Amino acid sequence: LENISLSDSVYKIGTRAFFGCENLKNIHLPNSIKHINDEAFLLSGLNTIHIGENIESMGRDVFKDVPLEKIRCGRKINPELKKFIEENYIKMVFDTSTKLTTFLNNI
Fold first, then answer.
1. Which of 27, 45, 47, 75 is the most exposed place for a label (fewest CB within 10 A)?
2. How far apart are CA 93 and CA 100, in angstroms?
């Protein structure tokens, strides 16, 4: 699978849920997602992720060793979590494998 849109009945992404899914390129997390656990996308091929507005927490190394290029977040995302994502994931957690060029908070 290259593109995934999860159902509104999903409320969290489990630890290592997409570990090693090298063919995964894009994922859309609905507003029902509240938690993304540790290493959820570790070593996946993820390029783009859309994070819904109701996300409350993200674990450690969620995007470690991922060639992520874009993160899109809903407009109403919690400002504290947005700041956390910007400070921790964009600047530190993405390691050298990242190609992150865009962080959008206007979807």
1. 75
2. 11
By CB neighbour count within 10 A (0-12 exposed, 13-18 middle, 19+ buried), where does 23 fall? Answer: exposed
- For the chain, list the strands marked E by DSSP: 3-5, 12-13, 26-28, 35-36, 48-51, 57-58, 70-73, 102-104
Judged by DSSP in three states, 40 sits in: coil
Which residue from 19, 77, 80 is spatially nearest to 50, judged by alpha carbons?
77
User: pTM value?
Assistant: 0.80
Name which of 34, 76, 24 is nearest 59 in CA terms.
34
Q: Write the DSSP symbol of residue 28.
A: E
Q: How far apart are CA 96 and CA 77, in angstroms?
A: 27
